[in-house]
Every structure is written in structure tokens, then in C-alpha cells.
């Protein structure tokens, strides 16, 4: 097959890339939402600031995080869990902006998951050098619902593995506006993010923001 070139004669990116039987990258899917969604990050962070959580093993996470929605993901020496109250502020997590829910709903639908109504949005902030080591997401009640991930700002190399930590990983570049939807049999695969390079983004500067929408409760 001859590859498609864009108007600059550069190879065009396939708008959909399958990572597994039930995991798909939707290139640029979030771009039409950026104008609404990016300013809302500061509103959320003003109420529930980004912070570095401690893992049960006693390590401080390299990624800084906050949450919005009814439930938020939290970690401390006692374990990982979803909470209604932000442990840093003792207030409920900020509510999920309508633009966030709409983006998650439409992305899930585009990937074949009808009627996705997330109750949690974990917001990760990466600075140059930040990484996320290989892990599974197992704290959600119902593995039937997908997870929708939205990448904004600097690009990152995502690592996608198998069901065992020792399984080989494939590298997937994720850039500003890309959305990934994971469900079904790919839901429990190990994944992580390689240390970020400092290549400032025109809108977000030297950071990457990732949203993961979940049905946690
Ligand atoms: C694959 N975040 O917060 S999102 C996380 O870019 C997390 O911040 C990464 O992994 C980030 O837990 C990657 C992509 C993602 C999220 C959930 C998954 C990939 C997944 C669940 C199952 C398989
Ligand atoms: Fe994860």
C-alpha cells in the first residue's frame, strides 16, 4: 500500500491505531475540546492542587496528580483507593466539568463503548523527567467499563505491556490531543510512561497533562 501524504508531503497519521483487541488510539480526538478543557485544569487545581502522593511501599510518585468528579484516586502508606474527599483539603474533589464528561462520553462511543458515564477523572501532571512505572489499574469496582485517557501538552512515550509485569512492552508515542480508550480484555494490561523529554509545547509549556476517566464506584 502507498502511504498517504498530507498537504506538506509528510506521512499522514492514521486517525485510529489499534493497540489490542479492545484498546484504540484516537489521534487528535480531543483537539476540538482543548479550548474548553485546558482552562478548567487551573480551576480544578486551584481547589485541589497537584501533589505527589506516596505509594504503600513508601516511594513518592514522580507524577503529580489531582482529581475531579465524585470519586478521586488517592494513595498513601495504607494503600490505593478511591475517595469522595480530597485527603489534602478535607473537601470533596472538584466536580467534573461538563466538557470533560462530554469528551469522555464521545471518545468511548467512537471506540465502541456506548453510554460511558465516568464518576472519576484522575489528572496527572508530568514535568521533564517525570515517569510512571509499569502498573495495572485495579482499584475500580467494575472492569466492564472502559478507561478513557486524554493527552495534552508535551509528547510522551507510552509503554503498553501484557498481563504479566515481565511481558514485553510496545512503545506508543502520544501527543497533544490524542485519546486512548481501553476496555474489555485489554483492561488489565501493564502500562507506564517513559521519562519525559523537555520539548516545550506551544500551549502548555514544559508539561504534559493526562486525564484518565474511570467508572470507579
Ligand atoms: C491501559 N496514566 O493514571 S493513561 C494512570 O499517561 C495511567 O498518565 C498514564 O496509567 C498517563 O493510571 C497512562 C493510559 C492508560 C490508563 C489506564 C489503562 C492505559 C491503560 C488501563 C488498562 C490498560
Ligand atoms: Fe494506569
Question: What does this protein structure show overall?
Answer:
- The structure is a single chain.
- A hairpin with a 4-residue loop joins strand 6 (85-86) and strand 7 (91-92).
- The model has no long low-confidence stretch (mean pLDDT 96).
- The protein has one domain (4-214): Alpha-ketoglutarate-dependent dioxygenase AlkB-like (Jelly Rolls, Sandwich), CATH 2.60.120.
- The chain is globular.
- It is built from two helices and 15 strands.
- It is mostly beta strands.
- The protein has helices at residues 34-47, 98-110, and strands spanning 16-20, 23-26, 64-68, 72-76, 79-83, 85-86, 91-92, 120-126, 132-135, 147-153, 156-160, 170-174, 179-182, 191-193, 208-214.
- Bound molecules: N-(carboxycarbonyl)-S-(naphthalen-2-ylmethyl)-L-cysteine and fe (iii) ion.
- N-(carboxycarbonyl)-S-(naphthalen-2-ylmethyl)-L-cysteine is lined by residues 122, 124, 132, 137, 147, 149, 180, 182, 186-187, 189, 191, 193, 210, 212.
Could you give a quick summary of the protein structure above?
By secondary structure, the chain is mainly beta. The chain has helices at residues 34-47, 98-110, and strands spanning 16-20, 23-26, 64-68, 72-76, 79-83, 85-86, 91-92, 120-126, 132-135, 147-153, 156-160, 170-174, 179-182, 191-193, 208-214.
What is the topological layout?
Elements (H helix, E strand, L loop, with lengths): L15 E5 L2 E4 L7 H14 L16 E5 L3 E5 L2 E5 L1 E2 L4 E2 L5 H13 L9 E7 L5 E4 L11 E7 L2 E5 L9 E5 L4 E4 L8 E3 L14 E7 L3
Antiparallel strand pairs: 1-2, 2-13, 3-8, 4-5, 6-7, 8-15, 9-14, 10-13, 10-15, 11-12, 11-14
The structure holds N-(carboxycarbonyl)-S-(naphthalen-2-ylmethyl)-L-cysteine and fe (iii) ion.
N-(carboxycarbonyl)-S-(naphthalen-2-ylmethyl)-L-cysteine binds next to strand 8, strand 10, strand 13, strand 14 and strand 15.
Amino acid at each position: 500500500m502507498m502511504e498517504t501524504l498530507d498537504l506538506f508531503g509528510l506521512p499522514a497519521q492514521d486517525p485510529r491505531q489499534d493497540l489490542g483487541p479492545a484498546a484504540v488510539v484516537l489521534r487528535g480526538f480531543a483537539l476540538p475540546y482543548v479550548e474548553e478543557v485546558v482552562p478548567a485544569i487551573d480551576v480544578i487545581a486551584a481547589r485541589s492542587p497537584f501533589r505527589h502522593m506516596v505509594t504503600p511501599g513508601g516511594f513518592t510518585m514522580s507524577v503529580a496528580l489531582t482529581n475531579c468528579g465524585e470519586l478521586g484516586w488517592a494513595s498513601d502508606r495504607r494503600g490505593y483507593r478511591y475517595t469522595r474527599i480530597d485527603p489534602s483539603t478535607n473537601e470533596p474533589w472538584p466536580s467534573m466539568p461538563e466538557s470533560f464528561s462530554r469528551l469522555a462520553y464521545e471518545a468511548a462511543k467512537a471506540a465502541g463503548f456506548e453510554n460511558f458515564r465516568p464518576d472519576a477523572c484522575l489528572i496527572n501532571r508530568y514535568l521533564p523527567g517525570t515517569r510512571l512505572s509499569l502498573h495495572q489499574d485495579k482499584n475500580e469496582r467494575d472492569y466492564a467499563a472502559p478507561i478513557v485517557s486524554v493527552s495534552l501538552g508535551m509528547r510522551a512515550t507510552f509503554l503498553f505491556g501484557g498481563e504479566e509485569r515481565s511481558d514485553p512492552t510496545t512503545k506508543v508515542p502520544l501527543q497533544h490531543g490524542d485519546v486512548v480508550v481501553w476496555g474489555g480484555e485489554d483492561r488489565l494490561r501493564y502500562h507506564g510512561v517513559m521519562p519525559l523529554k523537555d520539548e516545550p509545547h506551544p500551549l502548555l509549556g514544559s508539561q504534559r497533562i493526562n486525564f484518565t476517566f474511570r467508572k470507579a464506584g
